[in-house]
């Protein structure tokens, strides 16, 4: 008994040391800056006044309304695609599964300009459709991952007893996939409620969400109490969405464990062809903005033109687009390395705590998800307020942007690595430990080989997300060293046909790079379950 207690103490001590880096990173580069901004707002006594303003709640209402509309539309559009991916065996399904990820990781500024090419005047409809475009993949792959594991026996039994296809779906299948639908909807709502680049470009200055209003009040008006109040409202909504998503995710994992992991795909029959047609229509609609973006990049005043692509090495004013692209590549690399270190350590700690201190593991998991939903502007301005208190002035350091981007992709790394680590048979670790392997060697010999694919995929996925990150980067990037998404937004706001063509050409090049990386990632992940990847 005494040896077991001593071993448990050593284990908890080791976990504490491992947890020090992710907890310290979260505290230093997220909690402290956000708390500083909120504290400044309270110190001026304006938070209560801002919360009492009708404009604040009108912004909150619009934020929730557009996010809810986008979520409903994404779920409705994603379900037939999820069915095709999970239940039907058709040529090209594997390619569709990979290509679906491309819209999800495209930079918001790229998607904003793509929809502005279709709707020059912007508006609510274009905002909702752009957010839906982003998030159909979340629904299709999250729901499809669970749907593929459902035994068809329940549906077939209902049909034998006289139920129609729709009744069998409503009474048997839908309840079984609802945990995945709820999980996907919570994530989509979170992404849509904090959408920045899309609303900034398509809102036309008149339609504003909490996210864009925080930016306006912080940067243009220097209204810290107002920005702090909006940040508090947004943070409350984010915590609620994360709680719903975590609960739905746990139900989804439980549902998956209770059902056989059998292949249920078959050739379409009967009414399933209508589902195939609906899914095909969704895919065509996804292709329209991308095609419009490409055509716009090739259009000039006098017809077809490659002037935008030829101007890529120099804009005539400001930073050349080529230099901004190289800066994007370097910054994304730094952010990805940092996010991998913190994210993998956090995943190891969460998995280990699940065996010895489950509540602590869930708290850490939830805390590390918070940066996904808090305003990037709030975090960025908090950096400028707090980081000058540290040795050296990080506010002028080139590491500032990678630090902010790492905060965004750490949750994504954890969501991709954690399910795989949880699926590793604990008996393999115990056998290695019995043979004398220490914790580090157990990780190297057991966990690493089994999770290597997910680690590589997480690195690639994090890289493309950092490459296109716009919210925090637009606030923190130095004028002489912008990233490509920041420069694209600047070019789109400048007068002149050449600037517009260069902006669209840069969007196309960024989209091609992003798509190529995503296709490679999905090939690496072939054979692994899609459940939990978002």
TrEMBL record:
A single Gene Ontology CC term: plasma membrane
Pfam entry (one): BPD_transp_1
Family that this chain belongs to: Belongs to the binding-protein-dependent transport system permease family.
Organism for this UniProt entry: Amycolatopsis suaedae
Protein localization: Cell inner membrane; Cell membrane
Record key words, sorted: Cell inner membrane, Cell membrane, Membrane, Transmembrane, Transmembrane helix, Transport
Residues that span the membrane, as ranges: 12-39, 59-86, 98-118, 124-143, 180-204, 224-244, 273-295, 332-351, 363-387, 399-421, 454-477, 502-521
Bilayer topology: Multi-pass membrane protein
Protein name per the record: Iron ABC transporter permease
């Amino acid at each position: 008994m005494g040896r077991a207690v001593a071993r448990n103490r050593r284990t908890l001590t080791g976990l504490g040391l491992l947890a020090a880096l992710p907890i310290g990173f979260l505290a230093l580069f997220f909690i402290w800056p956000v708390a500083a901004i909120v504290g400044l707002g309270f110190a001026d006594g304006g938070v209560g006044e801002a919360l009492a303003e009708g404009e604040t709640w009108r912004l909150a209402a619009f934020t929730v309304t557009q996010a809810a509309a986008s979520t409903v539309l994404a779920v409705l559009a994603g379900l037939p695609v999820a069915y095709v991916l999970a239940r039907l065996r058709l040529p090209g399904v594997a390619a569709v599964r990979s290509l679906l990820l491309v819209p999800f990781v495209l930079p918001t500024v790229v998607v904003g300009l793509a929809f502005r090419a279709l709707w020059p005047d912007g508006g609510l409809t274009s905002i909702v459709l752009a957010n839906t475009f982003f998030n159909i993949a979340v629904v299709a792959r999250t729901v499809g991952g669970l749907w593929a594991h459902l035994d068809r026996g329940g549906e077939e039994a209902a049909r034998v007893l006289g139920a129609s296809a729709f009744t069998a779906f409503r009474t048997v299948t839908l309840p079984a996939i609802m945990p995945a639908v709820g999980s996907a909807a919570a994530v989509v709502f979170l992404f849509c409620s904090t959408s920045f680049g899309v609303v900034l470009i398509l809102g036309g200055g008149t339609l504003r969400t909490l996210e864009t209003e925080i930016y306006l009040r912080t940067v243009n008006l220097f209204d810290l109490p107002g920005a702090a109040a909006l940040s508090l409202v947004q943070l409350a909504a984010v915590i609620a969405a994360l709680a719903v998503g975590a609960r739905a995710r746990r139900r989804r994992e439980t549902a998956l464990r209770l059902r056989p992991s059998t292949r249920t795909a078959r050739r379409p029959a009967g009414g399933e062809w209508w589902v195939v047609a609906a899914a095909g229509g969704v895919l065509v609609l996804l292709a329209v903005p991308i095609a419009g973006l490409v055509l716009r990049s090739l259009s000039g005043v006098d017809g077809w033109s490659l002037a935008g692509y030829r101007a890529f090495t120099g804009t005539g004013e400001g930073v050349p687009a080529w230099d901004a692209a190289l800066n994007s590549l370097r910054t994304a690399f730094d952010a990805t390395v940092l996010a991998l270190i913190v994210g993998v350590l956090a995943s190891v700690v969460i998995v280990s705590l699940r065996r010895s201190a489950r509540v602590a593991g869930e708290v850490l998991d939830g805390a590390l998800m918070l940066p996904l939903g808090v305003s990037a502007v709030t975090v960025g301005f908090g950096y400028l307020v707090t980081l000058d208190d540290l040795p050296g002035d990080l506010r002028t350091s080139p590491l500032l942007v990678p630090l902010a981007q790492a905060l965004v992709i750490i949750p994504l790394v954890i969501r991709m690595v954690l399910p795989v680590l949880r699926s590793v048979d604990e008996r393999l670790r115990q056998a290695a430990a019995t043979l004398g392997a220490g914790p580090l060697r157990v990780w190297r010999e057991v966990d690493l080989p089994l999770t290597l694919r997910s680690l590589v995929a997480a690195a690639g996925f994090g890289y493309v997300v950092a490459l296109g990150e716009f919210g925090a980067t637009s606030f923190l990037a130095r004028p002489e060293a912008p990233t490509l998404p920041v420069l694209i937004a600047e070019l789109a706001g400048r007068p002149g046909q050449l600037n517009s063509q260069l902006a669209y050409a840069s969007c196309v090049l960024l989209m091609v790079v992003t798509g190529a990386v995503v296709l490679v990632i999905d090939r690496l992940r072939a054979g692994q379950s899609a459940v939990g990847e978002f």
